[in-house]
Amino acid sequence: MKRILTLLLISLFVLPLFAQEEDVLRGIKVKKYPFYIYRDAFDRVNHYIPSGWMGDWGDIKIKENCKKNPKTGKSCFQIIYTAKRSQNAGWAGIYWQNPANNWGTVKGGYDLSKAKKLFFYARGEKGGEIVEFKIGGITGRYSDSGMATTGPIELTKKWKLYEIDLSDVDLSYISGGFCVVFSSQMDPDGCTFYIDEVYYTDKDKPISAKRKKKSRRKKRRR
Predict the structure, then answer these.
(1) Count of CB atoms situated within 10 Å of the CB of 157
(2) pTM of the prediction?
(3) What CATH class has 28-203?
(4) Is the link from the previous residue into 34 a cis peptide, with omega within 30 of 0?
(5) What does the pLDDT look like over 70-116, one tens digit per residue?
(6) Domain extent listing, the chain
(7) CA-CA distances (angstroms) from residue 110 to 12, 73, 86, 98, 120?
(8) Which residues sit opposite 62 in a β-bridge?
(9) In the predicted structure, residue 132 carries a pLDDT above the cut 90
């Protein structure tokens, strides 16, 4: 009889706790792709907020509505890093978070399980800037389920398309949707660079390539 009562108590109280934990670690399900981090400044399709400033955060300046030679649309995202070591860290970075300033302390991640890749365009002000780009990796009570990175990349002066393969990454809960990292060791004089068209997709090819194909077809029909 005691054994039966024990099993009943476990089923009533313990198992629901595990179910709740499972729910907590499952993010807001994304059903429609592309899922944009940045398309244009203040665009309603943008997701996540560039609120997670790290390291020498005093060395960072951003301009979300930069009109200087965007890849597409009306604007691009400018990041300036002075490498002055304001907080004596020797490095700095920015996380795009949901909600803002979420370091794994509150629930807010997205379930991006259907995404295959993250695409983005980037260019340097002069060329030769070293920057790392990644997704996920935030830890805490509500930790990201996975992480992926490009590793350090040397940017060119012209826009270039980059991608992060997500095929082997657990994307069931991602509160750190995008991240950029730079350092005084790699960029001793600081750096200025730009990003544009940052998005997750459930396809293997970038949107821009498809758009070009469509525009060519229209020209042929004319």
Answers:
(1) 12
(2) 0.84
(3) mainly beta
(4) yes
(5) 999 999 999 999 999 999 999 999 999 999 999 999 999 999 999 99
(6) 28-203
(7) 30, 26, 33, 8, 19
(8) 79
(9) yes
